[in-house]
């Protein structure tokens, strides 16, 4: 089975498929799936484009909209995680992942899926200490702060990943785990990226939460992007306390066997005692840049049409941690050791059985893509972006019994408005809406124990923020000055404009009128000023090159077998 791994996509979807087609022809192979490590840019139209953190002069529609509209078809199953240049309004509609176009699947804020026999985990976004503990409080239209913070991953995402106990074959992240440079040829890395030197010397290159995940789940492979350079590393792990279990070794996937193959001359017991992760970061899609790598995984199954499924352990973790979802613009802490009633959310057999029952024992991911936003028309003007409920998320939340953070946020914002706007008795329908809201917000996040393992808000690892995020468009500022929208009037109100995300309780009632949620304008970030940073020349040049056309294919990557891609 051949998997194509791609670095930063930057909207150059056609190029990915062109290169894969050439490799397939030249090598006589068939690629079963593409894994893109972020900055994919699933931009459907001008409105989405304005929701992407990137100066207007670098905002181009690129290729994705043709796959969205159906004009083009992705020739191979394509999975991607979010980076720091995305149509954030669109990705926010799919917090648990879903199809953004036929055959193109976004993995959500964080997710685990099965591609054939491979268990693939992905985490979207990049790390920023100052947003790490906050809830998912952002919604479109974004202001200068939220257009950037929307793609910063949160402690809940990391906490959920840490609950995984079964072996993971592949992890995808946009930024790199911290300290990864120590496990590869970092002199070469420094020659290619000399401006990393200071951060490397201070051991500040990369994301601390990601290095914790790497240590906790010890996947066979980890693929990243964002730094715009190819870099390979080999990490030997010390054996964790609670794995690998004999049972796990017994039932290892073929990819694990592949990983073990590399640990040459080691007996099986040694291989059991210590695991290794092969890390590979790839470049962005530009001529003569190493942005794509084919990796061969030995499998017994028919590679032409791989199966694509949800993962029972992951679904169980999503469900059991549902009460930890926060949409507040303030810190919340994950349950620390000893927290009652529960601090360990690793999935039990009963919980996995329960999700299997909820999914009627069919975890296959169906193609339930629908066009939900206007397709791009040349010459169109951007509209004001609004929070929208995506039918894929609605179905998923309903089935699993989890909240949609965006819908929950709308409920909470409406609730706040209800309280501040009404100084008389609440009209009947607002009262009933409040009940709904209270149900969905009956969480315990504020009362959770302080966890000493958490990164404190004072810690700010803000290295490597993209230059292209640093400027904000006048358009965005203008769009965010929308009119305040009050709760629906008595009787004329439509309770569908409020949603709890507790989909089961809402059965039979239409949650959204036309899947668009009306919210008040976003609050301006107090530290908007802080978000404006000076662009460095190097980074300027990088950003400039994003808009280059592919004048030649000299950068076409070669196929490497899994044994020699470390070289
Ligand atoms: P993007 O494509 O996301 O706008 O920007 C990526 C750029 O930022 C690349 O040029 C990459 O080398 C740089 N970059 C990403 N992360 C870091 C980091 O942690 N430190 C430094 N010095 N540069 C970074
Ligand atoms: Mn990036």
Residue stretches low in confidence (pLDDT < 50, at least 5 long) are 244-273, 423-514, 524-567
CATH H-level superfamily title of the domain at 2-240 and 273-420: Metallo-dependent phosphatases
Give the overall form: globular
Q: Over all CA atoms, what is the radius of gyration?
A: 23 Å
Count every helix, treating DSSP H or I runs of 4 or more residues as helices. 19
Would you write up a description of this structure?
- With 567 residues, the protein is an alpha/beta fold.
- It has a domain at 2-240 and 273-420: Purple Acid Phosphatase, chain A, domain 2.
- The chain has helices at residues 13-27, 46-50, 64-69, 88-92, 146-149, 155-162, 186-192, 197-201, 208-217, 246-250, 254-262, 268-273, 312-320, 349-358, 391-400, 405-421, 428-440, 474-479, 537-545, and strands at residues 2-6, 31-36, 77-80, 98-101, 104-106, 110-115, 118-123, 170-173, 221-224, 231-236, 276-281, 292-296, 308-310.
- The longest helix has 17 residues, at 405-421.
- It is globular.
- Its main location: nucleus.
- Belongs to the lariat debranching enzyme family.
- Its cofactor is Zn(2+); Fe(2+); Mn(2+).
- It is found in: Nucleus.
